[in-house]
From TrEMBL:
One cellular component term from this protein's GO annotations in UniProt: cytosol
CDD domains associated with the record: NRK1
UniProt keyword Kinase, yes or no: yes
Swiss-Prot/TrEMBL keywords: ATP-binding, Kinase, Magnesium, Metal-binding, Nucleotide-binding, Pyridine nucleotide biosynthesis, Transferase
InterPro entries: P-loop_NTPase
UniProt key word Magnesium: yes
Species the sequence originates in: Rhynochetos jubatus
Lineage: Eukaryota, Metazoa, Chordata, Craniata, Vertebrata
The name this protein goes by in its record: NRK1 kinase
Superkingdom, natural source: Eukaryota
Annotated metabolic or biological route of this protein: Cofactor biosynthesis; NAD(+) biosynthesis
Single Gene Ontology MF annotation: ATP binding
């Protein structure tokens, strides 16, 4: 969901996990001139066609082939509250974005999937505090952003498995603690 805390969570996890890097779907938006406009004049940014998804897949695959040479920061995590020994050869890529699980070529790449949710009122409130380029036009949230979120969330619920839904109204600390612990468990399984 837009303004659900995806980027904040990813950045905090990066500081806590060994050999961790982040890739953001926002970096793959097409230029405004290539984004379709609907009959109401809304730029259709909240759809897969507004993104260079093939380039994103290629970037992820490239990172996976050679994570050590990707520029990933290999400094020791700030917080080592769990046993993170023997993880020097494990590299973690956090991919954050709003339409990741609705693009089939990506679905075979995930070890873990997290999906932040927000109720309508909270999402709209948070969205109203952000400045976008280009700026949201009047009615854009209700006319495009929220309907597209509901559409893609429905598709996700019908087609994707192993998705952990997270309540974006919970505190950042609570969300961070849960996801961090879950990733540590996944690392232990992979190192098994």
């Amino acid at each position: 969901v837009t303004n659900g805390g995806k980027t904040t969570l990813a950045q905090k996890l990066k500081k806590m996990l060994p050999n961790c890097d982040i890739m953001s779907q926002d970096d793959f938006f097409k230029p405004e001139s290539e984004v379709e406009t609907d009959e109401r004049g809304f730029k259709l940014y909240d759809v897969l066609d507004a993104l260079y998804m093939d380039e994103m897949v290629e970037s992820i695959l490239s990172w996976m082939k050679s994570p050590a040479s990707s520029g990933v920061v290999t400094e020791k995590p700030q917080n080592t509250r769990d046993n993170l020994k023997n993880t020097d050869d494990v590299y973690i890529l956090i991919v954050e974005g709003f339409l990741l699980y609705n693009y089939e070529p990506l679905n075979e790449l995930w070890n873990r999937r997290y999906f932040l949710t927000l109720p309508y009122e909270e999402c709209k409130r948070r969205r109203s505090t952000r400045v976008y380029q280009p700026a949201d036009t009047p009615g854009y949230f209700d006319g495009h952003v929220w309907p597209m979120y509901l559409k893609y969330k429905r598709e996700l619920e019908e087609n994707a498995s192993n998705v952990v839904y997270l309540d974006g109204t919970k505190s950042q600390e609570e969300l961070l603690s849960f996801v961090y612990s879950d990733i540590i468990q996944e690392l232990k399984k992979l190192k098994g």
